[in-house]
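Good morning,

Both structures are done.
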Amino acid sequence: RSKIQSVAGMTKEKTQWKELLEALSVLQWVLTFLFLGLSCIILLVCLMFTSLWPLSTLCFVWLVIDWQTPERGKENDSIQSSMTVYGFHFKKLKTADLSPNKNYIFGCHPHGIMSAGAFSCFSTESCGFSEIFPGIRSCLAILAGLFRIPLFREYIMSAGLYPVSKASLVHLLSKSGKGNAVVIVIGGAAESLSSSPGMNTVVIKQRKGFVKVALEFGADLVPVYSFGENELFQQVIFSEGSLGRKLQDLFKKVMGFAPCLFVGERFALLPYRKPVTTVVGHPIPVPKRLMPTEEEVDHYHRLYMEALTKLFHEHKVSCGLSESHKLQLI
């Protein structure tokens, strides 16, 4: 009996340590998302007024010299690690095979507060992307302005991230061979403002640039939906026309991202322990058109929205939503 009690005590202690390490790892990820870029800017500016000013100068000089590198990417497999952490987990479901002889544009929805589903599934190997889609290389494209922050840009480049810019997309879809899946969180900052538990709002109706790029390079479109993304944090949602929403929209227009007021489960920052299931839909065949017409862009944009809606309704119940949940496209 004493041996059993000893083993039980050791198991409990290991579980507690495991939970602590998981909580710390997620806290690090959240703090990095929220504050690392700003911290890098503040650090370099402060160093300019000290005897260490040459360090800041060298960082800014390197930024100018190395300006084009983010568009070409910087692969590093050291960060391709598991993200089954803090009592919640990420998983990916595929609905069709993808040919490694094609290039793809994945439209990922919804943005959520931090795009946890997109990052974990397409910028790490936590969901086993390379095993599920052999021969396909996922490339997550994020806000281009983040790659203009010295030091921070090196950090996000080491994670294999790309700027969501035309130059970056051209490189990935025309100069990197075949088997590339460029992942774009289509709704961006505007969609993050609609992120809250129980809401399934997708900003897509006026977002047609990704469809035009797909036509220019003949890249098939693939709708992706992360069920549970909006359940990770509670957000204060300001109504349209309110002062709070106007300030958010102004900040988004100036800075390119929206300041969301949100809280999590512990320390107000850790996400709620909810599973996130990212479902990758069927590819939509797209022909190559060097100069696509507006009618062609509208046609494939409509096909994409229909495929996204179908994907949502086919998998919502199995992914934890009720039959009554609807997908709102705005």
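Second structure follows.
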Amino acid sequence: MIFTTTNNVEGREIDTYIRIIAGETVAGINFLKDIGASFRSITGGRSAGYEEEAVRARESALNELWNRGQEVGADAVVGIAFDYSPMGTSNDMLMVTATGTAVRLKPLQ
């Protein structure tokens, strides 16, 4: 399956727009990462723990999007966008959503 942030697939023509699909994941941030991030906010620099968690959450959301595309028989998902939202009573959870339009492509000639 082809994934793209653009609204078309270069060199291919879209035959059918199936529907909008989404993949979501919610990741928890543990207290050790919070401690490291607090230290980084004082001293400056990047928070590797948070970055790693964000990457894992994004990949998980993409995997969910892939699965949903397979379920609806898509050849591609176009116009993919990501949304990151804090969740939980202490904002200690991160929800990542990947959305796009599932499409079928015209066969290659």
